[in-house]
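User: Structure tokens for this complex, please. No commentary.
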Amino acid sequence: MGESSPSLPIVKGTVDNLVLKALCWTPMHGFEITQWLESRSHGSLDIRDSALYQALHRLEERDLVSAEWGVTENNQRARYYRITKAGRARLTAETAQWVRYAKTVTDILTSAAGPA
Amino acid sequence: MSAEIRPGIRRLLRFITPRSAARDADDEIRLHLELRTRQLIAEGMSPAAARQEAERRFGEVDEERRAFRSAARHRERRTRWRDWLDATRSDVRYAFRTLRRDAGFTAFAIAIVALGIAASATVFSLVDGVVLRPMPFRDPSRLVWIPNRGDNGKDEWRLQVSHFRDVAARSQSLSDLAGYFAYYSIGDAVLMQHGESRRLTRVPITCNFLPFLGVTPRLGRSFSADECLENGPSATVLTDRTWREQFGADEHIVGKAITLNDRAVTVIGVLPPSFDFAGVFTPGTPADLFVPYALSDNNSRGGNSLATIGRLRRGVSIDRADAELVALGKQLTEEFPQRNTLRLHAVSLEAHVNGHFRPALLMLAFAVGAVMLIVALNLASLQFARITARSRELAVRVALGASRGRVIRQTLTESLVLSCTGALLGIAIAVVATSYVSHLRTFDIPLLSRVTVNIAALAAAAVVAVVTGVVVGVVPVLQSPTDPNDALKDGTRGATRGRRHARIRSALVVSEIALAFVLVVASSLLLRSFVRVLDVDLGFRPEHLAKLRVDPATGFKNLASATLYYDDVLRRVRAIPGVTAASLNDMLPFTGDRSWAMPAEGQTYQRGNMPEGFVRVIATDYFRTMGIPMRAGRDFADTDTPGSTPVVIINESMAHTLWPDRSAIGRRIGQHNDFVTVIGVVGDVRHGALESPFTGEVYYAMHQGLVGDARFDLIVRTALPPGQLATAARSALAPVAGDVAKNAWTPLQDAIDQVASPRRFVVVLLGGFASFALLLAALGIYALISYGVTQRRQEIGIRIALGASSADVSGSIMRGTIALSAAGMLLGVIGAMVVVPAMSGLLFGVTWADPASFVGAIGLLVVVAAVAGLVPARRAARVDPSVVLRDG
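Assistant:
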């Protein structure tokens, strides 16, 4: 659970993109998404469960994901979220932007200090 | 305010929204907590600790639950809305599909709805602009028109200035009084600008006229007190139109001097475009600029000159003001015997301005309502036929699980699509039609120019469209069977239900015929009145008469130079080949209103009973030119000069009034030492309106004196085409009156058309509506009969097979048609007897019970019904029994 290293604070608006990424492969219910994110981040991202659901509802409101009721393997009633076409497009765009942003910031932070 | 409502709406929605939305939210949270707890237990936690940790990680469970629930509810609402939209979209799509399959019906339905809506919206705009909307003045409901009734209690005279001053000072019920000089003449002010002259119409108004009406100049100011004195500084206020057309909308015009009739006049203000003096008070005539009219003793001697308006004090009724003014009139008449008699009254200005158009416009509004009703009936009848034809399809849909509500919704969508498409088209037509109508300058209708299609008219059209759609969409379905078994079993033979539908449709068509009948009767009555009006004996022959305004830009020094000028003009025009006669008149029929007292010599009259005569100043040969018969005596001659005995020619009415029992020739009119001798008696001529009776007229000789700075109309009797006359006259007049030759020749008939124009306006519109109604009724009959023939093909086939001749068959169809139209006409006659008497005020020369109109309408409808029934009847006669019977 990564108790040894402190959790990273989450940059605002990132949860939405992470959720979209999570749904990219297959529709999931809320808890599955949490698990997916925890396993991918090795527990180093501090996302409140409630924040995840808020993100899901936000995305649904904007038609980036759609939801329908289904049944889990254990026959429990669960709400499954599925990424929409618009959601996929959004994810691609956001990812590209994020990569550019991160690269630029990284480049600056890691370059040698000196006059421009 | 919305903040107060919203919680209420939310509560309402929570109430409506099924529990499921909230339960779903709870389920989602519960599942999450459960799975998380299970995971933590698997990782080695105690169940209690795991549960606690799961909730901690989730965050504020209660708050989240609330957020969840509201999000869920929101979602729910959205989904429902989307479902509704989806259903509607599919309904609309379905409607378009079925309507396209039935292109003929669709086009017809849309066309009649469009025409109906266009007519409704246009007439509503008219009624609204002319009658309903308040006049463009401050607090118009408190404005009253103050007529000074003539001896007969009908004529409307003006007020003498001295009386005006006293009424203003003494009246308790009126807070203020204003007026305008009623006898201004059209084009009396010559504007000189850059060496070019232009004729403008100048209206003298009392000093307070503009502030009284609440009109604020857009530039400059209204008249000051000293400008309203008799010899005060000359000042004028321009109308917006004059300011634009003559002065290029010069923003700095205030304070500049312009040249009017060779005098410098200072422009002190420009009026706003909303102020339409002519539109309200003198429709059909121009009013270009305003000058002050002094309330002086000098002007008072000019007689009854002020058209007067009053403003009621707050809380005072018109009746009270009327009672006070009647008493005040009597009081002033007794107090000042040397002044004119005063018989004051008060009527609302609104009623004075459009009072006589109100019945006509209400008539049109009724007509348009009837037309719209016919449209709806027609559509309903057609929908009935379609629903009957589709009853099996509908029944199948009900059997397959569609609810009755769903089926109604489907047909409702269909008819709403129809009526709304029709309405859109209709509104487009209405916009064009209204702007066309409001730009018609040939109609003497007050405030016509401000008529526009407004929101109210469009809203009315939309409401009509929707109501039509709903009625037409729902009613037929409600009549359709509730039990699908019924319809499916019913089969093609259309048993009882089919007959019931046919009865309902017959009733609809009968109502259509009845309504159309009423409209036809009403419009035929108006048309016959119109023809009677045009047929009235004018007293002169207007055909082949043309007139030209002779208005030299520069004034004359004296009578001699004026007569020299006019004689020269006359001589030159008479010499034009093709001109058979020519003369001059300073006030042609239908162009003005000027009466003088005409006492017979030696006769004393009681006050208020003084005979009056309409005054005209003419040149020689006027009666021959106009075609007015000479009854006795002689025409003016060149020997009637300023030096010879003053002479006049009077008309028969005048002669009869003054000397009922003896010849008028040689007798004198006048009092004291001021007499004129009657040398001739001529036929009567109409002047005010075509419908008004003949009154006394007195003709003066131009050579013996002019009235005011007399300008004349040159009238010419000629068979020359207008263009040729204008060219010939231009070259003939160029040496003496070059500026006059530029004026336009107009046929005298135009003036008569102008007077008849409001009547023509109503006749044309109502005639249009009646024709439309008739057409719709015919189509209704045709559709019904034709449908019946299709339904009864087998029966007809059997009858033919059994030996009925084609004449028998078509005869029976025609009998059905005639029965239908007879029922409709019977209803129509009853309807007409209820409705038509209300329009008595619009009739002239016919009574509302005019047999010709009723019989004519019956004949017309019989013919229309026969034609409409004939086509299906012939189709029935051609039914081939072998084909029909084989096809089953």
